[in-house]
Design a protein that fits this description.
single chain; 336 residues; alpha/beta; globular
Length: 336
């Protein structure tokens, strides 16, 4: 095992947009999602972790993001009810090639997008390009017209008609669940708890006194109760199954590692920025099913899951350190 020491002087708690968080600026940071790319139990490998990146271009990802935005940042986003976004990879290409004029992109732009999203292996025929344009044309034109007259400071969210209907059901039921609302908006007897949504925590860690790895996490929601010296990390999850089966997803997707990593970083922040010492750590998954009747449920993190998640987090961080230490191909990932 490597000696891994958090450099607390580098610990930062910031507001960073999704665009910046996923930009080149933070590309050499290790997130929980990136750890899945090196985890053998999740099909990971060093090639995927250091060079592979993510290629999950699904409608469920778009839907989940929209749900997060409306629940956690309703002041910043709204759903456009009158414009239908194409589905599947076509939707991703439509967004990637969209321009404010609403004009059809060039063939070169469409081929570039086809490669990026592996549309017909990045080399669609002329007929497939024509079909693609036909499916996207109304979206490009109507979106351009809409945004030309848009006055709102809120950012628009575009979904298919079916996903708009499902999203309304999910948001409505999340808002009606008193346990979920209490966790998102906690109260206390004396001091008002500190709460935040979509905050980013950044931290450098020193490995073997020789090089630095950088960590990043974007927390859906957390609260810090100064009276009770308790931190609570809440993670909003959408699921295509019944909420009572969510324990299976926790195991399958290693969600326990995600909350353990978030809690570890938030614990350091509570100590550094709020002078808390004997901190109680809690965590919850706020789950909503994306199938009717859009049931919701709070699934708490147990002590066993926290221990399992933190152990896996440390082991995978050590695995990254192993590759950086022993293989010259991966030394670029570390800082001195």
């Amino acid at each position: 095992m490597h000696k891994i020491e958090p450099l607390l002087e580098t610990l930062r708690l910031e507001d960073i947009s999704d665009e910046e968080y996923f930009s080149e600026k933070f590309s050499n940071y290790i997130s929980n999602s990136r750890l899945s790319l090196i985890n053998p139990d999740q099909g990971g490998s060093p090639e995927k972790f250091f060079f592979g990146g993510f290629n999950n271009f699904s409608d469920s990802l778009i839907f989940g993001s929209a749900c997060h935005q409306l629940v956690l940042q309703p002041e910043s986003y709204f759903v456009v009810e009158t414009i239908d976004r194409p589905t599947g990879k076509t939707g991703y290409i439509a967004d990637y090639t969209y321009n404010k004029s609403g004009h059809v992109p060039t063939k070169e732009q469409l081929l570039e997008a086809s490669k990026k999203y592996d549309f017909y292996k990045g080399n669609p025929s002329e007929s497939k390009l024509e079909e693609l344009i036909s499916k996207c044309n109304n979206y490009w034109r109507n979106r351009a017209l809409f945004e030309h007259s848009l006055q709102s400071k809120q950012l628009p969210i575009y979904l298919s008609a079916r996903d708009r209907e499902r999203l309304n059901g999910c948001i409505s039921n999340l808002n009606k669940n008193p346990k979920i609302q209490e966790l998102l908006h906690p109260t206390s007897m004396l001091q008002e708890p500190i709460t935040a949504n979509e905050k980013t925590i950044l931290l450098d860690v020193l490995v073997d006194d020789s090089f630095i790895l950088k960590l990043k996490s974007k927390l859906d929601n957390y609260s810090i109760d100064l009276d009770l010296e308790t931190i609570t990390v809440n993670d909003l999850k959408t699921t295509g199954k019944m909420v009572n089966l969510f324990d299976e997803a926790i195991d399958k997707y290693h969600y326990y590692r995600e909350l353990a990593m978030y809690a570890y970083l938030l614990n350091l922040c509570a100590k550094k920025f709020y002078n808390l010492k004997d901190i109680v750590i809690k965590g919850n998954f706020l789950v909503v099913s994306t199938i009717p009747d859009y049931y919701t449920k709070v699934v708490p993190m147990t002590k066993k899951l926290f221990n399992l998640g933190f152990k896996e987090f440390k082991n995978l961080l050590n695995l990254v350190a192993d590759y950086v230490t022993n293989d010259p191909r991966y030394k670029f990932f570390a800082s001195l």
